Amino acid sequence: MTVAVGTSFTFDNTYVRELEGLYQPWTAAPAPAPRLVALNEELAAELGLDAGALRSPEGVDVLVGNTVPGGAQPVAQVYSGHQFGNYSPRLGDGRALLLGELHDRSGNRRDLHLKGSGRTPFARGGDGKAPLGPMLREYVIGEAMHALGIPTTRALAVVATGEDVARDRLLPGAVLSRVASSHLRVGTFQYTAALGDPAQDDTALLRRLADHAIARHHPDAAAAANPYLTLFERVLDTQASLVARWMLVGFVHGVMNTDNMTISGETIDYGPCAFLDVYDPATVFSSIDEAGRYAFGNQPRVAQWNLARLAEALLPLIDTDQDAAVAAATEVLTSFQERYDRYWRDGMRAKLGLTGAPGRTDPLIDDLPALLAAQRVDFTAFHRSLSSAVRGDDAPMRSLLTDPSALDEWTSRWKAALATAGEPGAVADAMDRVNPVYIPRNQHVEEALTAATAGDTAPFERLLDVLAHPFDERPGLEAYAAPAPPEFGSYTTFCGT
Q: Is residue 197 very low, low, confident or very high in pLDDT (cuts 50, 70, 90)?
């Protein structure tokens, strides 16, 4: 049933109009007893939506998929993907629907998408549903990433469906309303390229997809001498920046398949994700990443591998001469490491307070990770403690080290570099603006999700409040900045499907 909910929704549907063949019109499975669990009022206001209308029974029915708001054209998108390195030619939204596109108050086009809304033609045997816990995980991690300044999809709402979902046990089901700049993925291009026959110049749909992506995300590419090569360069650059930002805060995505890499450069699909406690490049949280393909330290390399798959899909558009297309795409692809290194090193200089220091600071940056790994130092707490050292108090930093003397030589060099970085108080303040006090500590995330699944959302709401201001130290929140206790043990995450 299509309904109007006040005057909240004004949809456009360019994806549907322009990209026939890359979706299946579909409707959500009915939710028997929908109940609003969480509503992102800040995001609703940004989208020009009436939070009161969204909280009404009619609004909740829209957010869970029971009714279709006027102007929406719900579709399940289709795409391919390399999952843990293995190619799946036809994946798609097996439990999700794109309702349409909204314009936010700044005029930006944003997708509104339902996740956990039931089986679609792309479900491949799955039930199409989602448990409440993983949907709340996506909500809280997305909001944390947003507050940290990292490009991300965001949750508008989580609605419990009133029915149970069978996993290892029965769990309450839920639907997530997700907002993104778009849901175009590397896998979307892989699927589309596989449909055409370059030998027959059968690239019309691929060209329409690339033109759609350019118009939506990288409009300056349209005027370039080679728009499709420029599109690839823009996507590669945004991903180099994004992954560098992940690495700077200790974020582990956990499932970096090509269908989970966006063209927009936003983080998407917070399944088995988590943040580092102790620094260890080999850290894996995901229960399904048994070989460590998507370990923390592998993320830049995997991103480049995924981008190589995008390059392959774009080759017929880059040049009709395949050898020339390969050469041009390869030149861009090989620039990934330099771009990533530049973004990461610039971020590390800011974290270490060295942005104003002349001369070479790379050795300080290069030497630090191995020292942190050897000491098994808490990643977030260590970097935050550095501003205290700049202000003259080394104790917070040294208290985090098993052997404080192990960093003495590095600390001496660092302080020598800081001597030319500027006034210490200003340098320390700048460091505190990029080194968070609070991240989604794994123990607090689990506590919040467990309580919410049992019906108590207070810990979840409290955690959201803490994470909304990650750089501002607040009295009474010391527990949220503390490492996991030893009894928390080895942490494993699950994707919820």
A: low
